[in-house]
Amino acid sequence: MKIIHLSDSHLGFSSYSRLDSHGQNRIEEMVYAGFDQVIEKIIDLRPDAVVHAGDVFHHVRPKIKPLVVFQRGLFRLAGAGIPIIIISGNHDAPKSYSQTSPFRLFEGLKDVHIAQRYRHECFHVGEYDFHCIPFCLEPQDYLEEFGKIERSGRDVLVMHGLVESLQNRKMRSVGEHELKDSLLKSDFDYIALGHIHGQTQISKNAWYSGSVEYFNFGEAQDEKGNLLVDLETGHVEPVPVRPKYMIDHPGADCQGFSSEEIAECLMDLCPEDEIRDRMVRITLKNVNRAAYRSLDQGRINRLGSSALYFKIKPEFCDEQELIERPVDRQMLHDEFAGYMNEEAAQDLIPKAIRDDVVFYGSELMKKAVASRNAGVS
Q1: pLDDT tier at 377 (50, 70, 90 boundaries)?
Q2: Domains of the chain, with CATH numbers?
Q3: What Rg do the C-alpha atoms of the chain give, in angstroms?
Q4: How far apart are CA 295 and CA 317, in angstroms?
Q5: For 16-35, how does the pLDDT look when each residue is reduced to its tens digit (9 = 90+)?
Q6: Strand ranges (DSSP E) for 12-55?
Q7: Are 79 and 106 in contact (CB under 8 A)?
Q8: Run of H or E residues at 3
Q9: What would the pLDDT profile of 311-360 be if each residue is shown by its tens digit?
Q10: How far apart are CA 307 and CA 277, in angstroms?
């Protein structure tokens, strides 16, 4: 029996404030498109079953669109005769008994098996028993639910959480629970884990499938996709779904660079055809603050316009440089303008009001300096 193991779809995730021509968040739409591609790939591979190890949705109360996208995927799998086993994760599970799980909408669908009631549930699919432990309200509940498992000799364990041996990869998200390594028993034919977004093998028979999408730059080096698992042989094969679209450049040393040299460095790192529709972050090390402020912001904005998301992360020289550098009081308005443009470049000031802020602030400083010079208090 062969299964596809996937997790952490996070349908409904949106970020970075980039909108398409219809006013929709571009990242959110990419997540939906990626999920559709996952379904297409699964149907092409024709596995005997699909296991989703949690965090189908990014929010416990998803909006209509992620629900529709998920339902469309379920119907396509059902139409292809491929059963699916799903557990709720820390993102899409209610945090109290008084709330209703979004998965209640999909109960009763043919060949759709969902564990979302904070307890162990077993689903017999094909020749195997799939022992599912979804998100539990208390960390200690996982051990109790694990103790309820009755093995049949052909067993798959499905859980969502952070195994204790990966404590250094804590995501610090709501409801992130630790799973004891003692749960990863070798007598299971396979253990399908969710929560970590990079494909990771924990033991001979235990894997995190990882996510298909990139949700932050800490994942830039992760392998992404699904896993094709042969339960008879134990062979696990990565299944890529889409090309890598996140680029986190190694830090470029800009010590002693003028603003023009910094701009040339950025241009060399960002050929338009290489960053188009990608998420890009460039770290500039040892940057002179004054030189960075003097960058042509219009030129920089045009540089990243073809990217899905574009961020420059400057790491400035020692702050002592600022203390020792004399400031010409007559040029305070230029200092202010440079500082505000720097803040705007980091998305700390809405671009729609940046020019007005710089203009009025600069004018105010000019008047203040003129008044001081004229002896007016």
Answers
A1: very low
A2: 2-239 (3.60.21.10), 246-373 (no CATH)
A3: 26
A4: 16
A5: 778 888 899 999 999 999 99
A6: 49-52
A7: no
A8: strand 2-6
A9: 999 999 864 444 444 555 555 666 666 666 666 665 666 666 766 776 77
A10: 5
Q: Which DSSP letter does residue 140 get?
A: T
Provide the angle, in degrees to the nearest 10, between the axes of the packed helices 351-373 and 332-345.
160
For residue 371, pLDDT beyond 70: no
Collapsing DSSP to helix, strand or coil, 307 comes out as coil
Q: What pLDDT is recorded for position 30?
A: 95
> Judging by beta carbons within 10 Å of its beta carbon (0-12, 13-18, 19+), is residue 186 exposed, middle or buried?
exposed
Q: What global pTM score does this model have? A: 0.82
Tokens of 97: 């008994």
* Mean pLDDT of the residues in the chain: 90
Residue-level pLDDT at 131: 98
Report the alpha-carbon distance of residue 303 to residue 30 in Å, rounded: 22
Tokens, residue 185: 């028993």
User: Which tokens hold the place of 241?
Assistant: 């779904």
Q: Are 1 and 126 in contact (CB under 8 A)?
A: yes
Cα 44 from Cα 156, distance rounded (Å): 23
Cα separation, 297 vs 299, in Å, equals 5
Q: How many residues does the chain have?
A: 377
Q: Enter the tokens of residue 9.
A: 């779809």
pLDDT of the residue at 75: 97
d(CA 249, CA 281): 6
Q: What is the C-alpha separation between 294 and 291, in angstroms, rounded?
A: 5
